[in-house]
Amino acid sequence: MNIACVGTGFIVDRFLEAAEINGTVHPAAIYTRKEENAVSLQNKYGIGSIYTSYEKMLADPFIDAVYIASPNSMHYTHALQAIQAGKNVLVEKPFCANSEQASHLIKTAEQYEVILMEAITTIHLPNFHQIEKEIRGLGPLRLIQCNYSQYSSRYDKLLAGETPNVFNPAFAGGALMDINLYNLYFTVRLFGRPQRVTYEANFHSNGIDTSGCVLLSYNNFKAICIGSKDTSGLNSALIQGEKGWLHVLNGVNGCREINVHINGEAAPKTIPQKENLMYYELAVFQDMVSKQDFKRAAELQVYTKDVMHVLDEARKSANLIFP
């Protein structure tokens, strides 16, 4: 599969490394507004072409798929153009700025008969699938706690009066969309769409959320998802049932270590994973493209739509507005 990348940030470097590990995904091109921004990546990974025109890149018949890692607010436009050009599309998280955009992209992909997928690491990891099995032994669930807190170097720039994209409402940034999304995907993928969503956030003066807590209310249990870009914290997840509890160490974004506690005993349940976690989502995407597996793509899109709905409800409850 020949793939083109949109963007030149660190996540693209990580993605291209995953493609290199995969061995059958070839970086054919990269799109950037400034050619010099992509030269180091081109040299590092042997990328065929650098485009400063997105339309020209999409017209390249050699390209089978496009990986989109532009700012959040641009995901919708870039993905829509790629779909309409007949390309399969892998969109970095968050999929779009809102659920309406997400639904339109999914319908358009169906119309053009291309594979469309959100690039979210968590749900494709071997240890996540292990968690899906292990929670069955915890008895009736009562509480879920997830914390992903990571002090952002760009937060210092925000405090200094700058407005980095990740802290800019116009770019659909903020802690909810950038970091708490992992917790929400983890919870919604395991337990479905909640009955109620409430978001309590800490805001910067420009209106962006720098940290906050999302409460997800289910019929018989509650989940709290904490995401922070203005503090560091003890990243972990706890799934608590009447017969025992499951502990995910170091955050759900990696699911790198799992312990199950039943009857006062801790049992390690960790499965070895590759260091580059993007390997797994890319493998799923490539498999769907090679097989034109639209059924599997549609199944994954259900979770994307559910998470986008939760994000909409969370922002609405906190009056977090993206222009």
Task: Give an overview of the whole structure.
This protein has helices at 10-22, 39-45, 54-58, 75-84, 99-112, 126-134, 153-159, 175-191, 278-291, 294-318; strands at 2-6, 26-31, 49-51, 65-68, 88-92, 116-119, 141-149, 196-203, 209-217, 222-228, 236-241, 244-249, 257-262, 265-268. The model has no long low-confidence stretch (mean pLDDT 97). The protein contains ten helices and 14 strands. The strands form two sheets. An eight-stranded mixed sheet has the order 8-9-10-7-11-12-13-14, with helices on one face. It has a six-stranded parallel sheet with strand order 3-2-1-4-5-6, with helices on both faces. The radius of gyration is 20 Å and the shape is globular. The chain starts with a strand and ends in a 5-residue tail after the last helix. Helix 5 (99-112) runs antiparallel to helix 10. The protein is α/β, with parallel strands linked by helices and 323 residues long. Helices cover 37% and strands 25% of the residues. It folds into two domains: 2-119 and 278-293, Rossmann fold (3-Layer(aba) Sandwich), CATH 3.40.50; 123-273, Dihydrodipicolinate Reductase, domain 2, CATH 3.30.360.10.
